[in-house]
Specification:
Layout (H helix, E strand, L loop, with lengths): L1 H13 L6 E6 L3 E6 L7 H5 L6 E5 L2 E5 L4 H10 L19 H16 L3 H19 L8 H15 L1 H13 L3 H11 L2 H11 L5 E2 L2 E2 L10 H20 L5 H43 L1 H17 L6 H11 L5 H22 L3 H17 L3 H11 L1 H20 L24 H24 L8 H5 L6 E5 L4 E4 L7 H4 L5 E7 L3 E3 L4 E6 L5 E6 L4 E6 L11 E3 L6 E2 L4 E5 L1 H6 L6 E5 L5 E6 L4 E2 L4 E7 L1
Antiparallel strand pairs: 1-2, 2-4, 3-4, 5-6, 7-20, 8-9, 8-19, 9-17, 10-16, 11-12, 11-15, 12-13, 13-17, 14-16, 18-20
Length: 624
């Protein structure tokens, strides 16, 4: 208790005192503060306090990770005068936005809006590519109606891109989807487009005596994103000034009457200028560095995918292809990056003695090489084993340099792989086919060889291997749910993905029951029932956490069959959850099992299981 009190006191001192706390709650591992002024908190001191495992800032919360002792530290903070109930607290003061925070918010808006649109964009671009190939081979004439209809099908996602962006952005910004559609619809309305064309020819276009710049909005992204973000504030303003008895008809009319002119007079032209500017920056960098630009992006690409930053390039790629019919810097760099992850996975499959890892690596290699889908290889092999990532980065640079020297450019934006490499074929340059093959061979062969040369630390395969480590103090931990094992690095929560609070394993649930993973005593049951702590009879301490951020559901999808202090046997049903309700509420149901006293063990290994049930061993530990 003394340690908890000392930690609570140190935390309080370094977050600006109790007077700087608007609210405090906690989950199974984190103290969740809402601070009046985050600048008063000393992040570095807090991160290095004895008992603090990490710090995270998210959703307006200042989250301090303290692990299993969180409830005790919380209680001590309450005793020290920190308010733990926000029902009567004043609204949280808005933080002053820094340039860095503004930049983060803009990137988050672009990534969050564009990610859901990728399937439609890829589908459309591949159909356009199919039409081009059918024309090149003489199967279809460019004058035929079949060719033109096929090309139109492929072009539709791009032509109506502002509409698609409006839907996605409205969900991101919590704006009214249909009003966002209506405003963006103005930009691609045939009559408005005709007015813009005439304005381009010299006939002045005005709205209420205000000049309207001649702009073509098809194939554009930024105007719709910005306008949909502004729409939320316009909605609030219209709601504020509209009398209650007239809201039903006057409010939506005012929203459109305010938003549409702003879109076509101010936001639209400004957005086009920004989009064009970004494309020009890419052209400039490529023009100055040439093939080196492609090589650098190729080396960095896996790292960008890890952080999700690769989606930032989507608007530029779309804009560039729309303007020039091809993109020659980012997309060619992906050939080496993607296929190198396939190559390192093949090398790992060739060398490992772990059957589970071999199967994972072979599946990941097939996905990366055939379809250009690299996440299984990135998270399941390269990041997991670390050194293969070095081979991938080196190969990405070399293959990118070759692709740049060859002048390869993409006419689509599908992830480069064996079947999608046709997007780099230049109908005016037959040699492009040969260069595509050369780059792909280099990507796979070089990464394969480098992985074998650099090597990697293999993973023990089974419980037998665990016992062979030469100690009798071994324990196995069973799966807490039915489901499928997924790479822990892919979990969208860096506390879990980085295993801050201990060795962890992630499971994508298919069932709805929570099982005891060990025989032992229940040490904690969180009030919202989404998380449980159990200490095994042999001493292993495990945390079962169902879903990411599901604490916010306040226990609605969960039931509990145990209480703190109960003794359970491995495989006992200790609770249930409504999987569909969690997903419908917009939360990730991925369940994490954490060994919170990892430091007490010499080795912790995962076994060769993918689909798991109650009693299926998923982790083994060797005590010091």
């Amino acid at each position: 208790m003394a340690n908890d009190l000392r930690l609570a006191d140190e935390i309080l001192k370094n977050i600006g005192g109790s007077g700087n706390v608007k609210n405090l709650t906690h989950c199974m591992t984190r103290l969740r503060f809402v601070l009046k002024d985050e600048s008063k908190a000393n992040d570095e001191i807090i991160k290095n306090l004895d008992g603090v495992m990490g710090l995270r800032k998210q959703g307006g919360q200042y989250q301090i990770i303290v692990g299993n002792n969180v409830s005790k530290t919380y209680a001590e903070l309450i005793e020290l005068g920190v308010g733990g109930d926000d029902k009567n607290n004043e609204p949280v003061e808005k933080k002053k936005l820094t340039i860095k925070q503004v930049g983060i918010n803009i990137l988050d808006a672009i990534i969050g809006t564009m990610s859901p649109l990728i399937p439609a964009i890829i589908g459309g671009s591949m159909i356009k590519l199919l039409a081009m190939l059918l024309s090149m081979t003489g199967v279809l004439s460019e004058e035929s109606s079949t060719f033109n209809i096929l090309n139109t099908i492929g072009d539709a996602p791009f032509f109506f891109l502002p509409i698609l962006v409006a839907v996605s952005a409205a969900r991101k910004f919590n704006s009214n989807v249909f009003l966002a559609l209506a405003v963006s619809g103005v930009m691609v309305h045939p009559v408005f487009m005709e007015i813009m064309e005439k304005a381009a020819e010299g006939k002045e276009a005005t709205f209420a005596f205000i000049p309207v710049m001649s702009v073509k909005y098809t194939y554009t992204i930024i105007p719709a994103i910005v306008m949909t973000w502004l729409l939320k504030y316009i909605e609030d303003f219209a709601d504020y000034i509209t009398p209650i008895v007239m809201k039903n008809f006057l409010k939506p009319m005012l929203i459109l009457l305010i938003a549409a002119p702003i879109a076509i007079i101010i936001v639209g032209p400004a957005g086009i200028l920004i989009g064009t500017g970004l494309a020009q920056i890419v052209f400039f960098v490529h023009g100055q560095l040439g093939f080196l630009a492609v090589a650098i992006v190729g080396a960095l690409w896996p790292l960008l995918v890890m952080t999700g930053m690769h989606r930032v390039f989507t608007p530029t790629i779309v804009q560039t292809i729309a303007e020039t019919d091809k993109e020659g810097m980012v997309m060619p760099s992906e050939i080496g990056a993607n296929l190198s992850l396939g190559g390192v996975s093949m090398a790992v499959a060739f060398k490992t003695k772990n059957r589970e890892l071999r199967q994972t690596a072979l599946a990941a290699a097939s996905s990366a090489i055939i379809a250009g889908i690299t996440e299984p290889a990135l998270y399941g092999v390269a990041i997991r084993l670390k050194r293969p990532m070095i081979a991938s980065v080196i190969t990405g640079f070399v293959a990118g340099a070759v692709a740049g020297l060859a002048g390869l450019a993409s006419h689509s934006m599908a992830a480069p792989g064996l079947f999608t490499s046709v997007q780099f074929i230049d109908k005016d340059n037959p040699m492009s086919i040969l260069w595509i093959i050369v780059v792909m061979v280099i990507s796979i062969v070089l990464s394969f060889i480098l992985t074998l040369v650099i090597g990697f630390e293999d993973i023990p395969e089974s419980e037998d291997d665990l016992l062979d480590l030469g100690t009798k103090d071994n324990t196995t931990i069973a799966s807490p749910i039915e489901g499928e094992i997924k790479p822990i690095a892919s979990v969208q929560d860096d506390v879990f993905s980085r295993e801050v609070i201990g060795k962890s394993i992630a499971i994508e649930p298919t069932g709805n029951k929570i099982y005891a993973p060990v025989t032992g005593t229940v040490t904690s049951v969180f009030p919202t029932k989404h998380a449980v702590g159990i200490t095994g009879d042999e001493g292993v301490e495990v945390l079962i956490h169902v879903g990411i951020d599901t604490v916010k559901l306040e226990g609605k999808p969960f039931t509990s069959a145990i209480e703190q202090g109960d003794h359970v046997n491995v495989g006992d049903v200790i609770g249930t959850f409504d999987l569909a309700e969690i997903i419908e509420a917009g939360y990730d149901p991925t369940t994490i099992l954490v060994i919170t006293n990892t430091e007490d063990y010499d080795a912790i290994t995962s076994f060769d299981n993918v689909d798991v049930k109650a009693h299926t061993s998923i982790l083994g530990v060797v005590k010091k």
